[in-house]
Amino acid sequence: MAEGFLMEVCVDSVESAINAERGGAGRLELCSSLLEGGITPSIGLLQVVKQYVRIPVYTMIRPRGGDFLYSDREVEVMKKDIELVRSHGADGLVLGALTEDGRVDAELCMELLAFDMVHDPMVTLETLVSLGFERVLTSGCDCSALEGLPLIKRLVEQAKGRITIMPGGGITERNLQRILESSGVLEFHCSARSSKDSAMKFRNSCVNMGASLTAPEYGLKVADVSKVRSLNAIAKNTL
């Protein structure tokens, strides 16, 4: 990990978790289905990842893709998942829950908020500080952290060290230095993934194990050690 900065890498496989740590990540966000923005990983995935890495593993708690307005039954699932991941070694939780008007559902938010869908980010930040939240993962309420940089900078200034502002969303080797220098943050979130061809020799192109917008059947996305190292080097040289 680059001194002064902490890189969090979101991963959805054991291979990605190992690669992220090898590349110098300081923390993992563990989930399944990054194609959907991440949902709760299986206990099996959590257990095996914990066997192979030493850095902290924060587990996504999200019962489905889509918005962050959850039904009572979905909340039941989330509460049970929280119990299970905590009992199986999760070092922290990553989740967010909103009311129908886009405000924080304080009862459901425990460690992290789905910040980029809130109605008023500046007011919401004060709510989170008062509730004792540790950090906010945000793209600056925009399509990427680079586009949301003005708001990220304002949030850092308003936070005044009371809560960690962690930019994420489209962070690459091309824009990381600008984001770090312009925002004043000390942590950042990325996936640092590359495409990897499936090892399958027999391939049935007529069968697709999902909807039409799913990832290619015989292509994988995994955290790339070289990309993680490159991002870490950029962060270190930004000091």
From TrEMBL:
Subcellular localization(s) per the UniProt record: Cytoplasm; Nucleus
Keyword annotations of the record: Copper, Cytoplasm, Metal-binding, Nucleus
SUPFAM superfamilies registered for this protein in UniProt: CutC-like
Domain of life: Eukaryota
GO cellular component, one term: cytoplasm
Molecular-function annotations in GO: copper ion binding
Annotated HAMAP family: CutC
Described function: May play a role in copper homeostasis. Can bind one Cu(1+) per subunit.
Stated family: Belongs to the CutC family.
Subunit structure: Homotetramer.
UniProt-recorded name of the protein: Copper homeostasis protein cutC homolog
Source organism of the structure: Oncorhynchus tshawytscha
Taxon lineage: Eukaryota, Metazoa, Chordata, Craniata, Vertebrata
